[in-house]
Amino acid sequence: MVNRLNCKTIEILLVEDNPGDVRLTKEALKEGKVKNKLYVAEDGEDALAFLRRQGRYAQAPRPDLILLDLNLPKKTGREVLEEIKDDPDLKRIPVVILTVSKDEQDILKSYNLHANCYITKPVDLEKFIEVVKSIEDFWLTVVMLPPR
Amino acid sequence: MEVTFLIVISALVQLIAAFFALRLIKATGLSRAWVLIAAALCVMALRRFLAIEMVSLWLFGVAPAPGLLDETLVLATSLLMLAGVLSISPLFFTIKQAAEVLQRSKDELEMLVRQRTEELREANARLAVELDERRQAEYRLAQYAEELKRSNAELEQFAYVASHDLQEPLRMVASFTQLLAKRYRGKLDQDADEFINFAVDGANRMQALINDLLAFSRVATRGQPFTPTDCNAVFDQALANLTAALEENQAVVTHDPLPTVEADGRQLVQLFQNLIGNALKFRGLDPPRVHLWAEPRDRDWVFAVSDNGIGIPKEHQERIFTIFQRLHRRSDFPGTGLGLALCKKIVERHGGRIWVESELGQGSTFYFTIPRREGTEHGEPTELQDH
């Protein structure tokens, strides 16, 4: 087991097609206490290519945490989640669903597909920053993660 | 001697015939004809008698001889007979006429029957057409109903999707204006701060509207099937959701024993919560006192939520159930004006109705009905899910 706090930079993969949301997440993470590096995949296929180190992502690192939006072009977040959790190599990486949807069906389906947690993006900026910080705090400092 | 006997018999037969001829007068009404014929017969009978030797000798002193008298009597008989027959002829004419009239009326009758039959056939055809038209109208009505249902469902789906998809860009507006405020408040001029505040406030209000719209459209699109629901548990849940507001207002909310009804439990919680929440929000100077009770009336349960709040003027009591209708300035009572429209939609989805009785300054009582269904009053209520 490795305590990431004392170690190197934490790698986060954000799967998000909205540049505004990407920027907001970046801003929120800036205020966090953990040194982190954020990678962004803009659609589902891109995300899977990154995780499998295919094509231009041959040198991509293995992320410690995945922040996954549900509404994505090409491959939806749900499909990405399903493929990650079906892949023996990737399924240990914690996946946090970060979406605007409060739909019960979305929540239920995500957990059925073994999402590690489901978070609704708050509209309020302060709350959003708080949520991102708490994700960071919980998943990157409180939780003991599996070795890479 | 034998000849005399024969003559007497024939004379008597002629007299008897004359008698019957006279009797026909009454039956036929042709008196003149029958009198003439009877007279002819009598003259013939007289001629018979005059032919008898004894009578002729007794009367005229001479033996009967065919001659002037006899010829005269024959002529008189013939004339009387002719006159009589002529007099009868109108009878035949009348009979013929009557037969014609009879025939005519028979023809008329037949024509009338034919006409009536034709009319009946036409009426039948009209009826068939009418029936067909009615059937078509019914079919069209059913189609309209189906279309209406579909377009309603589409509209609800549209409202849901629209408000759902509106969240994303709105979040961008709200988040970045907030970020702007956070980073640059006080660093630009006073105007900029004011503009930023307006933008942030607008985005926040729009967010509240969209959330309410979503909740409104969810009543139909995300409704759960009706199950036996214990309203006492619904009340407890609604109160639990209102804890903060109850404490803040130092409110006392009480209730009589409530029935178990066939309903969507989560929507009932929302309904109770909105009505009690309104009672707290539109409070007077005294601490809010809210009381809930229910009683069976006809085929419904009538629920009542009564408060000691500011009341609602008569002229606004209908309007308050319309979506986004507000009676107060936002600065006095915040809110989107959707709460009661949502209540109405929930009650109507359950087949009930909602109304208010109130007087300005005298508090309000909101009533709503939920239909009673057989067997639910004593049925096993399902557990309410927390949310």
Automatic annotation (TrEMBL), chain A:
Every Response regulatory domain range: 11-136
4-aspartylphosphate: residues carrying this PTM: D69
One Pfam family per UniProt: Response_reg
Entries under CDD domains matching the protein: REC_Rcp-like (cd17557)
SMART domains reported in the protein's UniProt record: REC (SM00448)
One GO term of the biological process aspect: phosphorelay signal transduction system
Entry keyword set: Phosphoprotein
InterPro entries linked to this entry: CheY-like_superfamily (IPR011006), Sig_transdc_resp-reg_receiver (IPR001789), TCS_response_regulator (IPR052893)
Protein's name in the database: Response regulator
Native organism taxonomy: Bacteria, Pseudomonadati, Thermodesulfobacteriota, Desulfobaccia, Desulfobaccales
Automatic annotation (TrEMBL), chain B:
Name of protein: histidine kinase
Source organism (scientific name): Desulfobacca acetoxidans
Enzyme Commission number, as recorded: 2.7.13.3
UniProt GO molecular function: phosphorelay sensor kinase activity
SMART domains: HATPase_c, HisKA
Domain Histidine kinase: 161-374
A Pfam cross-reference name: HATPase_c
Transmembrane segments: 6-25, 34-61, 73-95
Coiled coil residues, start to end: 95-154
Listed InterPro entries: HATPase_C_sf, HATPase_dom, His_kinase_dom, HisK_dim/P_dom, HisK_dim/P_sf, Sensor_kinase/Photoreceptor, Sig_transdc_His_kin-like_C
Keyword vocabulary terms for this entry: Coiled coil, Kinase, Membrane, Phosphoprotein, Transferase, Transmembrane, Transmembrane helix
Family matches, as CDD domains: HATPase_FilI-like (cd16921), HisKA (cd00082)
Catalytic activities: ATP + protein L-histidine = ADP + protein N-phospho-L-histidine
Gene3D superfamilies: 1.10.287.130, Histidine kinase-like ATPase, C-terminal domain (3.30.565.10)
PANTHER family registered for this protein in UniProt: PAC DOMAIN-CONTAINING PROTEIN, PHYTOCHROME-LIKE PROTEIN CPH1
